[in-house]
Amino acid sequence: MRVAAWNARLDAAPPRTAAAIGRWLLWVGSAAMLCGMFLTPPWGLFGIALASVGAILARPPLHRMPVLHVGLALGAWVLASNLAGMWRDQPGSGRISSLAYAWFAVPLVAAAASDPRWRRFALRALVITGGVALLVALLQFLVGLGKGPLRIDPDGNRFAYARGFSSFHLSYGFAGAILAALSVPVMAGTAWAWAGRIIGLVGIGICGARACLLGGTAGIAAALASRGRRWLLAAAGIAIVLAGLMAARMAMTDSVRLRQMLAGQDGRLPIWQVTAVMIGERPLLGIGSRKSFELAWNETYERVAPGPPNEFGADGGCPHAHNWLLAVAAEHGLPAAALHLALVLTVLVLLWRRRHEAPEAFQAGCGIAVAAVVCAIFEPLPTQAAPGMGFHAALGFVLGTSLSADQGSLNTAKPSTSNSGGP
Question: Which pLDDT score, from 0 to 100, does residue 237 have?
Fold first, then answer.
């Protein structure tokens, strides 16, 4: 593969050349994007900026990756939507959506992940970051989530939500789902792999986000089922057990929301109805941005009048469409939603083609994609700042593993003879 030749060329280069320094920057930035899913948006922004500078210096063969071409089309369309909103003075326009550049994490991290030494370092860094976030989340869950240091507050809400270092409990739960799906296919039996599985499962269990509970369970089942037909029954059984444990947790600590969920009492149906009208009014470029969607919500709701009272009326408007593809279509047009879905499918197709050489990468990719899709039925997490950057970085991780399948599995590395430095 061309990425293997690129790594070999840099291994033979002197350690202080621009290309060698660039690869080190690419490695550090890619690790920041991956670990940033458990942190806050600035980490991901720092990571993609640093990795981009590294790619300029190291010149990895990104142009050889089909995912780059799909991503460029997606970024250009989202940017055109943003600019169109600014041109017509749409209220709330003026800020470039993170989706215009977050997709670039896929090829950048794939270039870094083509080296097994970086994969080993990055996976361990992700587990450590997730573990520290889990300790904070457990304290929030057991002591109380409120306004104290690290949001740990004895006067806060206990046994309901936890968010770790994340801005929202949904972001934290989504990161746990991605980590669990990424860790399950690693069959080496290492302590790091098991730590990743446990951290991810406990995280989605205590986050309090029903979408992440369902998404994490579905992602783990998909990662197992993609091993072959013999694993289908085991995957279904494990999914049922996990779903039962999650339901039992909600029954003990959040019984009201559990009854509402089982009864189908959810406010998302009127949200989707109003969003469909907004998409129909601007199907090509959308309304321009997420803030514009929020500011236009109340007026559109009054025109559509789907029935239930507008639960966001006093808060300024609905923050988003509460669905991945509906949110992208409403904010940036139907083509943007199709291109974002095509980006994920392109990664999955590439993983499928190399499933025999890199089975773990294919399994992890299936788990990550399914976890994101199921979570995103109810929340547009793949398009939001920190979780979205982490999602694209995780796709890049498994893609890079697949591209260099001859150099090791998800978490293994051959002895290095490189003199170029790095993590």
Answer: 79
